[in-house]
Each structure stands twice: as structure tokens, then as C-alpha cells.
Design brief:
Layout: E1 29-34, E2 43-45, H1 48-55, H2 64-73, E3 79-84, E4 93-97, E5 105-111, E6 121-127, E7 136-142, H3 152-156, E8 159-166, H4 176-183, E9 187-191, E10 200-204, E11 218-223, E12 229-232, H5 243-256, H6 266-270, E13 273-277, E14 284-292, E15 298-301, H7 308-311, E16 321-323, E17 334-338, E18 348-352, H8 363-369, E19 381-383, H9 390-402, E20 409-413, H10 421-429, E21 438-442, E22 445-447, E23 458-460, H11 463-476, E24 495-496, H12 502-511, E25 513-519, E26 523-526, H13 541-557, H14 568-587, H15 596-599, E27 600-603, H16 611-615, E28 622-625
Parallel strand pairs: 1-3, 1-19, 19-20, 20-21, 21-25
Antiparallel strand pairs: 2-3, 4-5, 4-18, 5-9, 6-7, 6-17, 7-8, 10-14, 10-16, 11-12, 11-15, 13-14, 22-23, 22-24, 25-26, 27-28
Helix pairs in contact: 1-2, 2-11, 8-9, 10-12
Length: 647
């Protein structure tokens, strides 16, 4: 209520009483399976290209990639992927020596995930662009043709990732381990324990230094981060046959005589040296700090214009190159380093090949991976493509029915070897824990081989197609519409592993096996919408999925009610909020009934919430709905009208 003090109009916003409650998404899927590469934690994928970037290409005997491709091809918009690996799977890696003398193992670069795919990665190590003495650059290529070798490799294979100006200082934001592990999709880095070398910070000048008599004989120097100070060279350090040595001696004497700005840098100045390295045109001045430490450094810059820093070629613009105390830890430079497949020689100190493994993956390995989805609440469909066993079906349905909100539906399939109606029926009878949180589809489908290896169609599991179909029907008709019928055509299918007769289809339908059929006008379609449950209330897929949608929507939509006073005003708001949501769905055609009273009810009052409930902090909301059930059997009765007089 506003504080009134002057005559006039006061305006105040108040709540309308109805809190919006949005319908939960029902079309986001989660796929669990074997992939070429990629993270093992559950990762959201929003397109086929997104999947390829993270998880690689199709595998010849595993069907995760095929199924995700067909999910998007059949109407899916987004999904989660959980990668499973075999026991023998290993990560490709290569260890490089550092630049110290004598050298030691410096950094290990490895593929971002396990698998033989990592053996195709090729690294190029160069100096960094902005500070070549203290940083380095990593370029990553991926070999597609094993026959291409250096020198053709560098020109024929494009760079897919580049990371420049990387540091070996763990405290730097550009530390190689931090940058690669956070930003690269392909490689990771780790520091070797042996990589501990430090040196006196130095500045190596450009070749053939000169000092003209008419040039200002001054420059600025910063030793060990002490701050820049001006240095003036004496006239004696002039152009003579021994000018470089004379200049070096003058620089050493001038700098070592400076007073440090920081007391801790005293030794850096008193021990400072300047020497001539090389002879003739190869001669250069080398300035070294008096201390060896990670922070040891020497920097030179001109005071103004063309002075001694440029004449002596000590500034970066004239070829001066600073190498700080950590410079020996930089990885050795190399043009072509095959991760996981390089010979152990020269700069390479160790290699571990990437391996996929060949062992069969037990169903329990996939079921264990379900736990990575526990914290994810915005998916509602689960599939393990290609693992068509009764054990996998039981595990999948059990996971869905045991989730806290029971908010996920499992799409299962028979095995690729199940090609007859009798085998499909035996599959259903072999299930030990059937419930309404799963459906099984039969048979597998025939589709063109996306890899191009086979000219003939290959067999693919139907679960990826069906998950995409669910998403497409949900978007166009609603989750309450059965994802089956002549409009439920499957894109990317050229045939079925087996074509069933009407009688065979009928027997499987009554057993709870959802059959894929091929019809002349519609093509290959899903022509079944039953769950595995024997409970007539939950016989149909759209009924169970509608209930899941209602449960999740209401659960998240009334969180605001927690800790509100538990009395009639709260109950009234709950009735209004949930009732408004149910009315919206009724108008969309989600329920049976000609009127809202016939279609649903929402009760929250003293009957549902007793005084004992109130004392225990409980408020009960009872919601009922009349589900739409699909017209499985359309019976047309035709009779002949007889005895009519002719006109």
C-alpha cells in the first residue's frame, strides 16, 4: 500500500493471482553409446555438425552416430550424448623434451579423449608471435590420409586449431595447460615433473651490433622486473676493431652500478653480465641477469627515437629477443609430431598410442553410464542405440521408472539378429521387469550407408529414428498424439529388415511390440504405440508420456508454494495456477471430454490437506485427467440397404 500524503492518484501493481505454469519439454532425447571420440560426461548437442565436432564420425559396428544423425533427420532439435568406452580404450599422447641443457621431458600432449582417433592428430610447435623467447604456438592438424607424410603434410592438411602465445608459467592466464584443457576440442596438455629448469634471464641482441658516434648513447633497461632505468654509455665505448667487446664491457659496468629500486634485486644487478656471442656478422650482445629464478628477466627499450637500444640491436624491433627464467621449460620446436604414433627420437621422449578396443561392452556398462544423466532434468527420452537385448531393455526401463521424478521414457529395440515375428515375440516374453516407462520397436531398418563403404543398404537400429519421430509429432500435434500412423513416416529409410503380415503384426501388437511397417502410399512408418506394461491404464505410449509431461510441468511450476502459509489462500492459488494450466491443455485437445469438468479436475482443500498434513508442513494437490487414447482399431460397418422402391 503506497504512503499517501498529497491529494492525487496513486498507482500500485498487484499480482493477478495466477502464476504462469509452462509445459515441460517432451522432445529432448539422451543417447548412450560408443563414439569415435568425445567427452564421457553428458553433453548437450544441438545439431548433427555439433555432434561431429564433439564425437567424430560414424563407426562401422557401433550405432550412436547413426542414431543421432537420424534423430535430427526425423525432427529432433536437441539431445544429450553420453559416451561409453571399452575397457581397453587408451588415450593417444606424446611427450616432448624441453629446451634446457641438458634437456628433460617437458610437456605431454594428449588427445582430448580416449580412442584410436587421437593417433591422427599432428602437432606443430613454433615460437609465439608476440614474445617468441618466452611463449610458443601449437597448431593442430588432423590426418585424414595416412599416406600423406612430410613435407606434403604441412601444405596439404589444414590446421583445425591454433593456440598462440602460450606460456609455461603456471601463474599466467596463458598457461598452456589451462588454455588447452579449457578451449581445445582435440588436445590436452600436462606438465612433466622433470620440467623444473630455470636460468638467468637474458636478452640476446640482433646480429652485428653497431654504435655510431652521432647516436645518443642511451637506452633503458629493466632487470628482474625492477623497473626501467636509463643507462648512458661512455664515449670510450666507440666504433673500434673491438667495439662489440668495448660496448659489452661498458654495458656490464653501467648496469651493475645501478641502484635497484627493490632491495631484493641487488644480486640481479651486481651479478649482471654482458658478453659478445659469435663473431663478425654473427656477433651479438647477450645481457644476463645476475640471478637464476622463474622471474629472472632482462628487458631493453629505447629512451626516445633512434638511440643505443636500436643501434646495438637490443630492442624487439631490431631483433632483440628476451628469454626469461622459465624459457628452458618451453617445449622443443618441431614441424610434425604425430600424437600417439611418432617415433621416440629427437624431441620426442615418450609416446602412447590411442586404442579403441575390441571387447564386447556389457549392458551394465551402458546402465552405469545412466548415472551421468541423474542431474539433468530437461530430457524426457532415453535410448541406447544398437544394444537390442532384453537385459538392456530391462535396465533402461528400470532407470526411467526409478528416477526421482519418473520423468523419462525409454525407447528400446529388438536385436539386429531378430528378423522374424517369432523372435520379436520371444524378445518381449524374455523381459523380466516390464513397465509403462518403455516401448520396444521391431524390426531394424534398412538405410543407405552414410560412410559410403557399402553400396547396399545397411541395417540400423530404429531407436534414433523413433526418438526424432517423437520430437516431430510432439511439435506438430502434441505429446498426447500417438507417435504412429501414416503421418509417422521415417525419413532416411529405404526398407525394413523384415516385412510383416497383418496377422503377424496383430500378434506382436497384442504382445506390446511396436512394429514398423511399409505401406505403398506412406512408406515406412511406425505403426504401433504401446508400452511394455500389461496395465490397461498405461498401455499406450502417449498416455504415459502425457502423464510425464504433466508431472514435470506441475512439479517445477509450483515451486513458489514452498514455505508459503499453508491455508486456504495458498490452496486457492494452487487450484487457480494448476487449473489454468490444465485448461490450456484441454483447449489444445490434450484430454478426453466435451467440457473441462469431464476432462480434468484439480483439488486442493481441507479434504486433500488435513490438519495433520498442515501440522507436518504438507499441502496436497490432487490432479486428475482423462487421457486421450489412440484409436488402434477403426471398425467400419457396411450394410446393404434393400427393399427400396425404384425411382
Amino acid at each position: 500500500m503506497p504512503t499517501t500524503s498529497y491529494p492525487g492518484v496513486y498507482i500500485e501493481e498487484i499480482s493477478g493471482g495466477v502464476r504462469p505454469l509452462a509445459a515441460a519439454s517432451t522432445s529432448t532425447a539422451a543417447f548412450v553409446g560408443l563414439a569415435e571420440m568425445g567427452p564421457q560426461e553428458a553433453t548437450r548437442v544441438t545439431s548433427w555438425s555439433d555432434f561431429q565436432r564433439l564425437y567424430g564420425a560414424f563407426l562401422p559396428r557401433d550405432f550412436l552416430a547413426h542414431s543421432v544423425f537420424q534423430f535430427f533427420n526425423n525432427g529432433g532439435r536437441q539431445c544429450y550424448v553420453v559416451r561409453v568406452t571399452r575397457d581397453e580404450a587408451a588415450t593417444a599422447s606424446i611427450t616432448l623434451r624441453n629446451r634446457a641443457e641438458p634437456p628433460a621431458p617437458g610437456f605431454t600432449f594428449s588427445a582430448a579423449s580416449a580412442g584410436a582417433w587421437g593417433n591422427s592428430l599432428v602437432l606443430q610447435i613454433e615460437d609465439g608471435t608476440t614474445d617468441p623467447g618466452n611463449t610458443f604456438k601449437v597448431s593442430v592438424r588432423r590426418q585424414s590420409d595416412p599416406a600423406v607424410v612430410p613435407p606434403d603434410f604441412l601444405t596439404s592438411t589444414p590446421i583445425v586449431e591454433t593456440f598462440d602465445n602460450l606460456s609455461v608459467d603456471p601463474g599466467s592466464p596463458d598457461f598452456v595447460v589451462t588454455v588447452l584443457n579449457a578451449k581445445s576440442n582435440l588436445i590436452r596438455a600436462s606438465t612433466r615433473a622433470e620440467n623444473t629448469a630455470v636460468q638467468r634471464g637474458l636478452l640476446r641482441g640482433g646480429g652485428a651490433p653497431e654504435l655510431s658516434t652521432d647516436t645518443p648513447r642511451v637506452f633503458r633497461i629493466n632487470v628482474n622486473g625492477d623497473g626501467f632505468q636509463d643507462v648512458t654509455l661512455p664515449a670510450a665505448a666507440g666504433p673500434t676493431p673491438t667495439a662489440a667487446e668495448a660496448v659489452a664491457s661498458a654495458i656490464q659496468e653501467s648496469v651493475s652500478g645501478l641502484t635497484p629500486n627493490k632491495a631484493s634485486n641487488g644480486e640481479a644487478f651486481t651479478g649482471f653480465t654482458c658478453e659478445v656471442e659469435g663473431t663478425g656478422q654473427e656477433a651479438r650482445l647477450v645481457l644476463r641477469s645476475g640471478t637464476s629464478s622463474a622471474t629472472s628477466s632482462v628487458r631493453v627499450q629505447p629512451v626516445a627515437g633512434d638511440d643505443a637500444a636500436d643501434q646495438l640491436k637490443l630492442s624487439p624491433a631490431t631483433g632483440g629477443r628476451a628469454e626469461d627464467g622459465l624459457a628452458p621449460r618451453l617445449p622443443a620446436k618441431a614441424d610434425v609430431l604425430q600424437v600417439g604414433d611418432a617415433p621416440v627420437e629427437n624431441v620426442v621422449t615418450a609416446v602412447t598410442p590411442g586404442v579403441d578396443g575390441d571387447a564386447e561392452v556389457p549392458e551394465t556398462r551402458f546402465a552405469d553410464a545412466f548415472a551421468r544423466l541423474d542431474a539433468i532434468t530437461d530430457f524426457s527420452i532415453l535410448a541406447v542405440p544398437g544394444v537390442g537385448t532384453t537385459a538392456m531393455m530391462n535396465l533402461g526401463m528400470a532407470y526411467c521408472s526409478n528416477r526421482q521424478l519418473r520423468d523419462v521414457f525409454y525407447i528400446g529395440e529388438t536385436g539386429h539378429q531378430d528378423t522374424t515375428a517369432e523372435q520379436a515375440d520371444a524378445f518381449q516374453k524374455g523381459l523380466t521387469a516390464p513397465n509403462s516407462y518403455g516401448a520396444v520397436y521391431f524390426p531394424w531398418v534398412k538405410a543407405p550407408d552414410p560412410t559410403g563403404r557399402s553400396r547396399d543398404p545397411i541395417l540400423l537400429p530404429p531407436s534414433g529414428y523413433i526418438a526424432g519421430l517423437y520430437a516431430r509429432i510432439d511439435a506438430s500435434r502434441g505429446v498426447w498424439k500417438a507417435p504412429a500412423g501414416t503421418e509417422a513416416s521415417l525419413n532416411g529409410v529405404v526398407g525394413l529388415a523384415t516385412d510383416l503380415s497383418d496377422v503377424q503384426h496383430g500378434n506382436l501388437n497384442l504382445a506390446g511390440v511396436d512394429v514398423l511397417r511399409r505401406f505403398p502410399q506412406a512408406g515406412v512408418v511406425a505403426f504401433g504405440a504401446r508400452t511394455i506394461s500389461s496395465d490397461p491404464q498405461w498401455r499406450y505410449v502417449p498416455v504415459r508420456r502425457t502423464a510425464i509431461m504433466l508431472r514435470v510441468s506441475i512439479y517445477y511450476g509450483i515451486q513458489w508454494a514452498v514455505f508459503e502459509p499453508n491455508d486456504e489462500p495458498l490452496w486457492s492459488q494452487l487450484r487457480l495456477t494448476v487449473g489454468s494450466f490444465m485448461m490450456t491443455l484441454f483447449r489444445q485437445g490434450a484430454f478426453q471430454g466435451a467440457s473441462p469438468a469431464q476432462a480434468f479436475f484439480v483439488q486442493c482443500d481441507k479434504e486433500t490437506t488435513t490438519q495433520a498434513d498442515i501440522d507436518n508442513g504438507v499441502v496436497n494437490v490432487l490432479v486428475g485427467f482423462a487421457p486421450l487414447k489412440p484409436a488402434e482399431f477403426v471398425v467400419v460397418k457396411i450394410s446393404q440397404k434393400a427393399g427400396m422402391a425404384s425411382g
